User: Which sequence fits this backbone?
């Protein structure tokens, strides 16, 4: 690893360790798990299905379909390329409250999807942006608290989800 990447990685691991030790009791709470599960994908599929059932041909419907058609393969490819082990795999002494579905942590798929969704919903209903982004930040934070992501994974997810949203909005506008 080059010097600055190693420094970033070390900082990321120290930040995770600090959160893991400091907020372990909080991570045990059902609310944190629920917030994390709200980013599992059911919400996104449900909204897209609801819009389809209502037979609306809205820009939001197209944006959701296009956004998630791009997001899922992109974050999967990045995970397979970087193959960054999850914190609890890299250091077994660190505690994870839940076990993730796949072995790789970079970038956070939950955070990528949450920020994509927040951006698309904000595009449609800008006055509710504070709520959409508060939820997206909570989803990303919950992943660190639950021990399945480093803070850098979350930042990468924020960037990836936001970039996809910008591209999708440009395409469907």
Assistant:
């Amino acid at each position: 690893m080059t010097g600055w990447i190693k420094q970033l990685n070390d900082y990321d691991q120290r930040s995770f360790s600090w959160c893991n030790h400091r907020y372990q009791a909080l991570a045990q709470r059902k609310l944190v798990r629920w917030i994390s599960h709200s980013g599992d994908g059911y919400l996104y599929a449900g909204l897209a299905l609801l819009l389809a059932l209502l037979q609306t041909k809205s820009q939001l419907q197209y944006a959701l379909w296009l956004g998630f058609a791009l997001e899922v393969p992109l974050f999967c490819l990045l995970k397979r390329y970087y193959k960054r082990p999850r914190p609890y795999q890299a250091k077994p002494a660190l505690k994870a409250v839940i076990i993730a579905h796949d072995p790789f942590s970079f970038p956070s798929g939950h955070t990528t999807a949450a920020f994509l969704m927040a951006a698309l919903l904000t595009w449609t209903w800008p006055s509710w942006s504070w709520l959409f982004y508060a939820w997206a930040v909570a989803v990303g934070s919950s992943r660190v608290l639950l021990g399945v992501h480093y803070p850098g994974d979350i930042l990468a997810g924020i960037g990836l989800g936001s970039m996809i949203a910008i591209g999708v909005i440009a395409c469907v506008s």
About this structure: The CA atoms of residues 36 and 57 lie 30 Å apart. The chain has one domain: 24-172. Residues 24-172 form one domain.
